[in-house]
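USER:
I wish I could look at a protein chain and see how it folds. I am handing you a single protein, as its sequence and its fold in token form. As I understand it, each token names a local backbone shape. I hope you can help me see how the letters and the tokens relate. The protein I mean follows directly.
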Amino acid sequence: LVTLAESGGGSVQEGGSLTLTCEGSGSWRGYCMGWFRQITGKEREGIAVIYTDDFKTKYADSVKGRFTISHDKSKGTMYLQMNTLKPEDTAMYYCAARSSDTCGALTGSLFGIWGQGTQVTVSS
């Protein structure tokens, strides 16, 4: 059974930084892995994806230049470094994965493996 577990969420002041961690069981070779977030009552937003074989990434415009997604193959762990946080970044953050040959879409419905989520709260 392949599983994911997020950690690293918390409360931070506007302009601060947080690093989220997604620990996964399995080798994650040939997987597209990503970070998504959801505010209660709103649609889930795909914010970053990374392909585990070549480390190519894609970001949503809302986080481009502020967030960095990375993957450590040796640990099977994915990270999301979040800088210059804004109150509108407040949400539940989820990591997800799917076995795939491509990794260019920030579409949550394509992903079948999900973590339980970690809350990020940014205060002004």
Q: What stands out?
A: The longest strand covers residues 91-99.
